[in-house]
Amino acid sequence: MGSSEFSWKLADHPKLPKGKTVAVVVLDGWGEANPDKYNCIHVAETPAMDSLKKGAPDRWRLVRAHGTAVGLPTEDDMGNSEVGHNALGAGRIYAQGAKLVDLALASGKIYEGEGFKYIKECFDQGTLHLIGLLSDGGVHSRLDQLQLLLKGASENGAKRIRVHVLTDGRDVLDGSSVGFVETLENDLLKLREKGVDAQIASGGGRMYVTMDRYENDWGVVKRGWDAQVLGEAPHKFQSAVEAVKKLREVPKANDQYLAPFVIVDESGKAVGPIVDGDAVVTFNFRADRMVMLAKALEYEDFDKFDRVRFPKIQYAGMLQYDGELKLPSHYLVSPPEIERTSGEYLVHNGIRTFACSETVKFGHVTFFWNGNRSGYFDPSMEEYVEIPSDAGITFNVKPKMKAVEIAEKARDAILSRKFDQVRVNLPNGDMVGHTGDIEATVVACKAADDAVKIKFFK
Q1: pTM
Q2: At 72, which CATH number?
Q3: Mutual orientation of helices 240-248 and 177-193 as an angle, nearest 10°?
Q4: Looking at the structure, do residues 300 and 371 belong to the same domain, yes or no?
Q5: Which residues contact 146 (CB under 8 A, 6 or more apart)?
Q6: How many domains in the chain?
Q7: Contact by Cβ (8 Å): 120, 152
Q8: Which of 93, 220, 233, 282 is the Cys-Cys partner for 212 at CB 3.0 to 4.6 Å?
Q9: Catalytic residue (one of 3, 51, 81, 177)
Q10: Nearest CA-CA partner of 401 in 343, 443, 350, 341
């Protein structure tokens, strides 16, 4: 819709008087759940938030930050900071995550994008490797999306394809891996009948191979790297179905913790290690358990484990997994095209805005809030302040982070009377919560509450 076809004019708010500054405070990672000793918000002293809730119970609302409320396909889909701030800033719901992938695959748009063109450059001489969770659970990946991608890639010139499977048993029933591998093998057989050299190259259980998160255990990623890139694993099989069945017979084995394996030919040589000139796609749409592998595949300067070999590949994610790190730099499905965000409406209506957070969430109250758009809409109407995050430490070491500094900047902006909207993000609950350190997260929750107090009660 062109700008001439609609009005930027906003109607006056029925209750908020003109001239009042509106503060939008995102307490990242903050939520409500049953009280217990692991509920850090409940355990922490949070007098400011408690008083806001008790002071206006009729106006206290819970806002959903996952599932269909932020454009994800089902209520089982976990939200994240990026989609949450997209939705908050846009004031509308846009397709995100798996839904975005479904639309791109259904329309064929995925094969016209820059990401696919980038990996396609390798199709003549190299192999296309697909790495991800083999599951129909719909949390991290979906089998039907992989099937469509295999079909589409082969129709668009991929002559040699290797799939590196990660078995699930967490989002789906344990033991279902055998059926998934059989289905995939059947699809690959049909591709081979059409002249495409397509087969499974390696595998392993998701919690033991590749899919670690939050840099908890790089050994998990290394086991995957050894099998997928180096073609080395403690178990070698000529058939993936046989591999999964046999490895499940090991005492206490299950799909989640299946040992890594590689598929070899009759001479015992791995059929699909990743080498120079190959293309690699990680086909999970959910980010949290793909970021670590993305770093290993993309970063020249990498010291988390000895990669032994760092192949010169063209790598793309199904989506971009980390908008802040711009990781990976290439991806098959672009973020949604979000237009006419609240920030743009505000400048068109002469409403002055101030946005502030520390580095780890600064992009969320600016870039993501503004619909994945860098910079100002109108520098004369907006001021963005970034407070540098503590570099080189995990956030549980300094759980108070920069909450006080953010709060003071916001308070000063409010008192300056220069701004009509002041928006900030207090990252403590999210960033410290991700570390899994209970004591530190309790400190973090109190720090966020203290920051709210500085903004409104002092």
Answers
A1: 0.77
A2: 3.40.720.10
A3: 170
A4: no
A5: 130, 132, 134, 163, 184, 283
A6: 2
A7: no
A8: 220
A9: 81
A10: 443
